[in-house]
Design brief:
Elements: H1 2-15, E1 34-35, E2 48-49, E3 60-63, E4 73-76, E5 81-85, E6 90-95, E7 98-99, E8 107-116, H2 124-129, E9 151-157, E10 160-169, E11 178-180, E12 184-187, H3 188-197, E13 203-206
Parallel strand pairs: 4-13, 7-11, 10-12
Antiparallel strand pairs: 1-2, 3-6, 4-5, 5-6, 8-9, 8-13, 9-10
């Protein structure tokens, strides 16, 4: 009788969920991969959580797909990549944001000017589209809120400013997308890296988009 009572009690405890079991191990904590500036800046730059960006747009060294000479920058607006051609058949590849439909640009240009935390002056055409930008007609000082970000590389053709830039952005979500008014944007930490690698006079090739960007 005592054995039957014991077995019945054991079954009741099991049905009640009170059977002793080894607890499941806690889920592994995955630390975010953060991309930070190499050196202090005059304005703070937030670390970028790379887990929020498609891995293919992370800065990385890859086999050179361009065939251009070392030191050349090549931008493919459809792939959303910028390559800096290096020696030995390699290239540093950066993910970029590009101009949305109707605002793209293509052609060959030269970096005639470089600027750290540059002033942004919206073109007249942009002010005509967005009249509220008229307050910046005289220029918006560099800083975290400036659309050009931490660095700008100015593209010239035949000695004339094309009004297109390679520049930084504090909006990591925009990398890999077509969202800008024509310029090529990189993460602030990436544009700083590119800025430090290329001198004035560097050649830049922006490929024509299949969407019909104009040269």
């Amino acid at each position: 009788m005592n054995r039957r009572i014991f077995l019945a009690a054991s079954a009741a405890w099991a049905l009640a969920g009170c059977t002793v079991r080894n607890p499941a191990p806690p889920p592994a904590v995955v630390e975010p991969v953060m991309l930070v500036p190499k050196a202090p800046e005059i304005f703070p730059i937030e670390a970028v959580d790379l887990s929020r960006i498609d891995r293919r747009y992370w800065r990385q060294v890859v086999p050179d797909p361009t065939g251009e000479r070392p030191g050349t920058i090549v931008v493919d607006p459809d792939a959303k990549f910028l390559w800096l051609v290096m020696e030995g058949g390699r290239a540093m590849r950066y993910g970029v944001g590009v101009g949305r439909d109707g605002f793209g640009w293509s052609g060959t240009a030269t970096i005639a000017r470089k600027a750290e935390w540059p002033t942004w002056t919206p073109p007249r055409e942009m002010i005509a589209r967005e009249p509220e930008l008229a307050r910046y007609a005289g220029g918006m000082a560099g800083g975290p809120e400036n659309p050009l970000g931490a660095r700008a590389l100015y593209l010239y053709q035949g000695g004339r400013d094309t009004l297109y830039r390679l520049h930084g952005t504090g909006e990591p979500w925009s990398i890999g997308k077509a969202v800008s008014s024509g310029c090529i944007r990189l993460l602030n930490v990436d544009v700083i890296d590119l800025y430090d690698r290329v001198p004035r006079g560097s050649r830049v090739v922006v490929r024509q988009s299949a969407g019909g960007a104009q040269a």
